[in-house]
């Protein structure tokens, strides 16, 4: 998994009724775009994440084209 600043990190809900959590990558702390990432959630709080298999990176270039 590789990300750059501005990409969205989507953590999919694990149980029925749990919504996906979307955050924005504000800092890439690993080398060459690898985790961990500092992310900011819509409510403004930030966290350091090392995404697991339930996560997906939405690259900012692809979102602009869609």
Q: What report would you give on this structure?
A:
The protein has 66 residues and is mainly β. The chain has one domain. The protein has one helix at residues 60-65, and strands at residues 8-11, 21-28, 37-40, 46-49, 55-58. A 5-stranded antiparallel β-sheet has the order 4-3-2-1-5. It is globular, with a radius of gyration of 12 Å. The model has no long low-confidence stretch (mean pLDDT 90).
What order do the SSEs take from the amino end to the carboxyl end, as H and E? Answer: EEEEEH
Overall mean confidence score, pLDDT: 90
Termini distance?
21 Å
In total, the number of strands is 5
Question: What is the fold's blueprint, element by element?
Answer:
Blueprint: E1 8-11, E2 21-28, E3 37-40, E4 46-49, E5 55-58, H1 60-65
Antiparallel strand pairs: 1-2, 1-5, 2-3, 3-4
Brief overview, please?
It holds the Pfam family DUF1918. With 66 residues, this protein is mainly beta.
Keyword list:
about 35% strand, 5 strands, about 70 residues, 5-stranded antiparallel sheet
């Amino acid at each position: 998994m590789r990300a750059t600043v501005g990409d969205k990190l989507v953590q999919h809900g694990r149980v029925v009724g749990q919504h996906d959590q979307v955050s924005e990558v504000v800092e890439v702390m690993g080398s060459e775009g690898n985790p961990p990432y500092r992310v900011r959630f819509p409510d403004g709080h930030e966290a350091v994440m090392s995404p697991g298999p339930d996560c997906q990176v939405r690259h900012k270039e692809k979102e602009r084209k869609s």
